[in-house]
Design a protein that fits this description.
This protein has 274 residues and is α+β, with helices and mostly antiparallel strands. It has a single domain, classed as Fumarylacetoacetase-like, C-terminal domain (Fumarylacetoacetate hydrolase, domain 2, Alpha-Beta Complex). 27% of the residues lie in helices and 30% in strands. The strands form 2 sheets. Strands 1, 2, 3, 5, 6, 7, 8, 11 and 12 form a 9-stranded mixed beta sheet that branches. It has a 5-stranded mixed beta sheet with strand order 4-14-13-9-10. Strand 13 (256-262) and strand 14 (269-273) form a beta hairpin. Helix 1 (3-18) crosses helix 2 (36-52). The chain is globular and about 50 Å long. The protein starts with a helix and ends with a strand.
Length: 274
Amino acid sequence: MDPNATTGLAREILDAYAKPHAIAVAPSGRDGGLDLATAYGVESAIVGLRRAAGHTPVGLKVGYANKAVWRALKLETLVWAHMYDDTVEHAPANRASLDVSRLFAPKIEPEIVFKLARPLDADAADAAAVLGAVEWVALGFEIIDCVFPDWKVQPADFVAAKGLHARLIVGAPRTVDNATIPALVDALATFKVKLSKDGEGVAEGGGRNSLRSPALCLGELASALRRQAGSARLAAGALISSGTLTESQPIGPDQAWTASLQGIDLPDLTLRTV
C-alpha cells in the first residue's frame, strides 16, 4: 500500500470512529487484503494524524494476548496499538463514569495496567526482570469499540483500527519495588477476577488469560517491539494495558460495571455508563 493509500485508510478509520458510523468492509476483506506490516503503517499514520490534532501518545495496548489463538490467526506474537492523552483517564478513587453515546458498539475489558519506570529491555520469560522496570501496577477497564460489521476482524484490522481502543480507565496504582516483586510475580500469575454488571456477575477470569501473567505479556510486548523494524522500544513513563482478563462484554448506557480481584492487592474498580 502506497503512503497516500495508507494515510487515506487512517483518515477513513478515524472518521468512522468520530461520527461514529460503520465501515461496511473491513480492510482485510477488500481487494488486495491487508497484512500486518501494512496495518502497522496505518496505525503509525493514525499516530501522526492524532499528533497533528494536538494529542500525545501515552503508551500501548495489546491484543490477542493468548497463545491459543496465535496458530489459528497465523500470529507469531501479540499485536498492539497506541493510547493517547485524551483516551486515558485516571480514577484514583476507583470510580469513574463514561458517556457511551459517542461510541459505536462498545465493549468492556478488565485489564492490568503498568507504568514503566525505565525503558524495558528484559527477557520476556523473566517476570521478575520485567517488573524491575515497572513503576506501578493498577487495575483498569479498557473500553474497545468496533466499526466493522458484527465485530468480525482479523489481527490486521485490529491494528489498523487503533487496536479498537476507545478509552482506558485506570484505577489506584500500587507501587512496585524490589521488596514487593517476588510476591507480585506469583500474584500476577494466579489472581482471579470477577466482572459484574449492575451487581450480577457476568464473567470471570484471571492473570493467566494474559499470556499466563500480565508481567509476561509486558515482556512479550517489549520483545515483539524489538523484533519489528522501525518500532520504538518501551520508554520510561509509558502506560501499557496488558490484555483482557475475561471475555469482553458489550456495554450500554445506565449500567454499573465492577471488577473485583482475588489474590492480588488491588482494589475493586467501578465504571458507570451514561
